Amino acid sequence: MSGAVVAAGAAQLAGLALAPLAAGAVQRLKGRLQGRRGPSPLQPYRELRRLWGKSGVQPESAGPVYRAAPAVVVATLVVAALAVPVAGRAPDWGVGHDLVVVVGLLALGRFAVAAAAWDTGSGFALMGAARDLTFAVSIEGVLLLVALLAALTADGTTDLVAMSQAAAGAEPWREPLHWCAAAAFALAAIAETGRQPVDNPDTHLELTMVHEGPLLEYAGRDLACLQWAAAARLWLMMLLAAGLFLPTGGPFGVRLAVAGATVAALCVAVALTETALAKMRILRVPVFLGGAGALCLVGLSTWLLGAGT
User: How far apart are alpha carbons 27 and 49 in whole angstroms?
Assistant: First the structure.
């Protein structure tokens, strides 16, 4: 195993610990942009430590599905993080590096949270879970279309290492397909991570919650696990964006530095987006995701027309 692969594996493990820092940085930047001091970037760690020291509270109607959901969500995010390469390199952890598998793991985590909401029977939790699953139909469809478009420029494979290597040069950016896939992925990632304008992660209004709604019945260590998983999901989508759509070649060290800078730039972009845009109406989210799907179809059409000529 080469030194670059070992370093990539260490970066993957470090990413599991750094995920809350990315979420904290977004909150800090949002505060600055809105004329406030904003919380410390380390605030998510303090919140996780506070929750970890508290005992859990379980609803009387909860069953084994409710109790197992946090562990399932954490497991899916850990496996997905180990499957996503860093700067085009990744050790063999025994879980593969397939993009479709990563999308499936994210869907499994979402299903576990939704099933826990049904297990408790809480009205607000069920409302949020129903909305989340409604959006998920479109989100997962768009992510699979993005995987298809990215695979076309990587000789038809959905292996993330090969896809990252194929996107490392400037050649893919000459294709409209690559631009369409990048734009569609950005829209789908906003919805997948529950950021504005699709959802407001800072809201405390039960009637408007989507991703936060199913978490209302959790407390203590279970809630800490779910909050870490939300931060890890944001980190994972940023890492995928850097790996699939960033035209950076060269030695591993250079690519690793550029990937880190890209994640930092994406944190700034998320903060700017959430400051500039208000949360949209729920009924407009399908239109938002439909636009992402249309971008994928446009990119696929340009590819087919180019292949035909």
Answer: 18
pLDDT in tens, 184-207: 999 999 998 888 888 887 766 666
Closest CA to 296 of 187, 161, 136, 171: 187
CA dist 111 and 132 (Å) reads 10
pLDDT digits (tens, 9 = 90+) for 78-118: 999 999 888 778 888 888 888 999 999 999 999 998 888 88
Per-residue model confidence (pLDDT) at position 104: 92
H-state helical runs in 97-122:
99-120
Q: Smallest Cα–Cα separation from 137: which of 31, 292, 274?
A: 292
Contacts of residues 127-130 at CB distance under 8 Å and 24 or more positions apart, as own/partner, are: 127/206, 127/207, 127/209, 127/213, 128/209, 128/210, 128/211, 128/212, 128/213, 128/214, 128/216, 129/213, 129/214
Distance CA 300, CA 261 (A): 30
Q: What is the pLDDT of residues 119-140, one digit of tens each?
A: 887 778 888 888 888 888 889 9
Sign, CA torsion 246/248/252/258? negative
Looking at residue 232, its amino acid is A
- Of 3, 1, 12, 10, the C-alpha closest to 243 is 12
Q: How many CB atoms lie within 10 A of CB 197?
A: 18
pLDDT value for 250: 72
Enumerate residues 6+ apart whose C-beta is below 8 A from 56: 218, 219, 220, 221, 222
Between the CA atoms of 150, 151, 157 and 162, what dihedral angle is there, to the nearest 10 degrees? Answer: -30
